[in-house]
Amino acid sequence: MSAATVEAKKTLRDGAFGHATALSCRECGHQIELGPHYACPECFGPLEIAYDFPEVTKAEIEAGPRNIWRYKALLPVPSDIEQSPNMEPGFTRLLKANNLGRELGIDNLWVKDDSTNPTNSFKDRVVACALSAARELDAKVFACPSTGNLANAVAAAGARAGIKTVVFIPSNLEQPKQVNSAIYTENLIAVEGNYDDVNKLASEIAGEEDGWAFVNVNVRPYYAEGSKTLGYEIAEQLGWRLPDQIVIPVASGSQLTKVDKAFQELIKLGLVEDKPYRVFGAQAEGCSPVSAAFKAGVDAIRPVKPDTIAKSLAIGNPADGIYVLDVCNRTGGAVEDVTDDQVRDAIVLLARTEGVFTETAGGTTVGVLKKLVETGQLDTSLETVVINTGHGLKTLDAISDRVGARATIAPSYDAFVAAKII
Amino acid sequence: MSAATVEAKKTLRDGAFGHATALSCRECGHQIELGPHYACPECFGPLEIAYDFPEVTKAEIEAGPRNIWRYKALLPVPSDIEQSPNMEPGFTRLLKANNLGRELGIDNLWVKDDSTNPTNSFKDRVVACALSAARELDAKVFACPSTGNLANAVAAAGARAGIKTVVFIPSNLEQPKQVNSAIYTENLIAVEGNYDDVNKLASEIAGEEDGWAFVNVNVRPYYAEGSKTLGYEIAEQLGWRLPDQIVIPVASGSQLTKVDKAFQELIKLGLVEDKPYRVFGAQAEGCSPVSAAFKAGVDAIRPVKPDTIAKSLAIGNPADGIYVLDVCNRTGGAVEDVTDDQVRDAIVLLARTEGVFTETAGGTTVGVLKKLVETGQLDTSLETVVINTGHGLKTLDAISDRVGARATIAPSYDAFVAAKII
After folding, report:
1. Which GO terms describe its molecular function (chains A, B) (predicted)?
2. ipTM over the 0.90 cut-off
């Protein structure tokens, strides 16, 4: 299927993928040449990027642009990546969260706030790397199946890059969410089916059509590397230091494993001190196959049928679930889950303590952070980072019956006084 | 009324307002001491901040934080402002807009994208300065009347700062917009009336109650200075150079006059070369009192009753309208207006060319940019900046019948092929 998807150019230009050297199978270690491939030809295991990194200094990175391309030497992108029109995502705020920390009893807490990315989620990071791959592979169409954040990011990045985009969504998606993507692309295609049907169709198209780059299908190895930049930024923003503990949402599980990969790379490159850190995964109870496996102490994921308000985390059969278990077990972390009500509570808690309005995925992560404290799984004396992956404006429905006006008064000072507002 | 609003502390701490020296009347030039005042005791003219700036170098600014506090020496804030919890707004992207430029026939076009601020509009800048003033004046309540962006910014900043917030809105405001503010504050107060009624009530409360800082009423002089940071950032991001032309939306008119003030300060401080620049104001036809005055060549604003989808610009009697006329006339610019349909077209145009989803205010500004080209008022060979003040997710309704799915297909490859999507 790989060869048919994005036809490999006869000759890739030198350095098309930066210091990447090959695609390497995460299961059997078999390596193949860089191209539009995502499954190992030997064992069908997932492929990821292998590199031969040069020496990279803090000074070089700090002199770079204020977006993910400051780490371009560590990504599968060419050295002139900034010259190609892109969304310039990343280098989002790392906020000291003293109010939330006080509320939860954590001494030293930070929120990595990816809701301020160009299309308001971390997906801008991964899509930027996928776009670079699509360009280098001479793809004609930049596409994805999605119900939300990914669709926004692909449609916007494609518009700015001047590449044709096609975004596939389930036809029953709420109209406001359709608008969020249709604003950027004239090719929003509604598919009569659920997300799994849309995803399956995308894989079929990727297998049959030449020149289509589906970000999360046939250029997935490049795409996934974008999540490493979350890890790089957290370390740099802490003053080139790894946090002691980090809490990360788990959908496919890719983001969590890539943040860990980023930390490991920084250690190997000598950019941060080698020290222990614990990685925690966050799921919603209504879609918690990885949490269930972690708690059961097994190393296989049993797929589930998702039923949660955290729709951007609702992947019932997460591709990287087993690797999440590896990371959390290796680092002494855990995977935990919370109910939809706990997700809603956590959204309000984060907004009212830190002024950050997160989507349901972020509510899940903050909710799990709280639960990890309450269950004694998190050491409250250690420096802790929690990732907010997207903006609450995208999942307003989830909390619209939770918050609202406290009082309604007549437009007069007397009415104000009578209402005893404060 | 001023003295009753936020009670002046017996002793303000040294440097509470940085290098600000006084409040100066824009009409008669009378100066009074710094405090919670906004109207001249002599002539009732609007007060603005006067400074005695120290020498400020580019290097000092560049070594500062990646937010508006890099310019703290030029703002009415203390030198330790970063130590107080705040939203850390600003230093948003200045995007080279080659696609939009090509579409409009402008050679060298940039978009200053303030939709990526913490609460997704430029209001985070002004509110951050108002918050500092409220803190230094020992205010007990941080408040505003608003229907949208300002309410979001005040509620979020207050939450993070740990100061009590009260946000007043018209009771008929759509429920999603109520949620956008209520998420951050438990004190969202619905007022039975229109925005003018709410605004009037806010002024009454500010006049009667001690300890209330209404950002856009009694600490307005401090608040308004925050808009200068848009001008500083544009100049710095262009490589310490002023643009030749800039297009700015006009609601009260404050932002436009403050960007001009910022450019003038940078010239006086020797941080940029003194060169001509032209400032253009953008209004929606349904609320275009400043544009009407400009076109009529008069220097008085005739108030109007707003009727436009650009609700964040819908101020029928803009306080700084006459100063907008001054700036646009002095610099050889203009004030122009566009219809609601042109606003909608411009929102789609910006999204599809640059991947930036703007609210109706930004649609107004980009629409006016287009009209300025078509009417020959803008020189298309000169470097031009257009400001995007807020995010389209906040005004989805305005374009929800404009964009949507292009096709609906069955979930099969055959159906995909039959639909001839590309």
Report:
1. L-serine ammonia-lyase activity; threonine deaminase activity; threonine synthase activity
2. yes
